[in-house]
From TrEMBL, chain A:
InterPro entries per record: ADH-like_C (IPR013149), ADH-like_N (IPR013154), ADH_Zn_CS (IPR002328), GroES-like_sf (IPR011032), NAD(P)-bd_dom_sf (IPR036291)
Record-linked PROSITE patterns: ADH_ZINC (PS00059)
Record domain Alcohol dehydrogenase-like C-terminal: where: 197-265
The name this protein goes by in its record: Alcohol dehydrogenase catalytic domain-containing protein
UniProt KW Oxidoreductase keyword: yes
Organism: Novosphingobium silvae
TrEMBL record, chain B:
Pfam family, one: Polyketide_cyc
Signal peptide, first to last residue: none
Domain of life: Bacteria
Name of the molecule in the record: Cyclase
Lineage: Bacteria, Pseudomonadati, Pseudomonadota, Alphaproteobacteria, Sphingomonadales
Coenzyme Q-binding protein COQ10 START domain location: 41-163
Region (Disordered): 1-29
Family: Belongs to the ribosome association toxin RatA family.
Organism per entry: Novosphingobium silvae
Amino acid sequence: MRALAWHGKHDVRVDTVDDPEIVNPRDAIIKVTSTAICGSDLHLYDGYIPTMKAGDILGHEFMGEVVETGPGSTLKKGQRVVVPFTISCGSCYHCGKQQYSACDNGNPADNQDIAQEVYGQPMSALFGYSHMTGGYAGGQAEYVRVPFSDVGPIVVPDGVDDDKVLFLSDILPTGWQAAEYAEIEPGDTVAVWGCGPVGLFAVQSAFLMGAERVIAIDHFPHRLELARKFGAETINFEETKVYEALQEMTGGIGPDACIDAVGLEAHGFFVDNVVDQIKASLFLGTDRTHSIRQAIVACRKGGRVSMPAVYGGIVDKFPLGAFMEKGLTLKTGQTHVQRYLPGLLNAIMEGKIDTTFLISHRLPLSQAPDGYKMFHDKQNEVTKIVLKPDLDRVAA
Amino acid sequence: MTDMRDDAPPATAKHGSGADHAGDLALEPNGDSLVSRSVTINRPRAELYRFWRDFSQLPTFMDNIVRVDVTGDRTSHWVVAAPGGSTVEWDAEITQDIEDEAIAWASTDGAGVANSGRIEFRDAGARGTVVTATILYDPPGGIVGKAVAKLFQREPAVQARRDLRRFKQLMETGEVATNAVNRQQHEEEIA
């Protein structure tokens, strides 16, 4: 089959690789119909993520048709499914508590060593995202082997367009969880740093959860315009002093809840502290963790900070004093995707949440390398690229 | 001097190997390197004990064990992969067997790698069972041999941690997690 493989910094290629097969009883094989490039894929592209190997197949936002099932799978051939980016067993203590992204068992035993050393506990597994999180082949491919297929994938009703449900795989539940973690009460003002897909979905989610006002912060005009369409007030941090504006816009109180969704800039996996913590402190001399610092300082006393943005390393100059003295609460973590799928699928079917506005480009899988370059270079115009393997099949 | 020992397991001691406490752990004193690891498994104690009591099933989750032949009610023959593609073999005998609670075994005289081990199963309420594996051994080739083993990731501390994770996966999910994309790759990985 054809698949998008990582070969190094700014070097991704569509290679011909072995077809996946059923290996374990609970597996299913999915024929991919839509697969998106995620902002976090750009960190792989930029070479910031440790434990990548040349030839690794990328992609963790995908959906498709079930073409083969193992004896332990509950899926049926021909069903259309969206696959969560987290690989969760459904049987361990954490899955039992619906903490799916803390699953004990999805990550192969040998791969668990890395995070055990760095974080104190092994991480769960993700599709197409380095060997620390399992080394599983990802979804930017014609076919994918999906482990624990009786737990992860959600079946999509016939007749519903891929574009409407694809983002159930990651960014929609991630934005929703970010808002849930902000513990929004009716009448609250919520500030959201970053108007990428997760930030924009957090804006929509915050309103659905009863926020009276949402203030969205970014510097790309197009993304701020999208946030405004959903009812958010906006701050362009290149034009405006963010802290001062937030205080004035909230009558000197500060936002009740602050959401740091600056994934792209603040994504911290670049901090390769597996091998080198000194390097981390050099990176942190830059502005990359600015958003979480600013969120903590801007937040009202007794307020909540929610952090869907991914951090991987050790943060210097964390405003711990402000955090303690103001009595803030911080909630964060990878998304427990499976927990939110039924509710969010309903919200989409009832028209309460729209996700299609996000897609700016649709490309055949064969043009995925161009897609990465475009997404990397033009973040104002390119909000989301969806790859469609079928476009190649038609051309062939 | 008063005894300054705390309540932590001997294998977590900063100084020494903890092997002096083998007796406290109901282990035969076969060797001077002690490894002990615990894992919590979301299954009943009796089920885990039963699986482990049949030593021939150990290779399904223990990576470096090629084969265990059960030769009698309390005796078995172990074939284990060693660094550099070779294997080592020994006979072992069960030295303690408490149903649903603990199994201890020891290599018999003449084993190339003298060793003993014990696996203990304790109830953990709603979380299932805490499984603790303790292994006492003489590293082949002494300290150098231990370093070589570490290089090949067959060092017993690493091995025990990974084996227990696989045991947990098998017991909780019915399968051992793998990132292999097809059966051939999977065969090569577990070979």
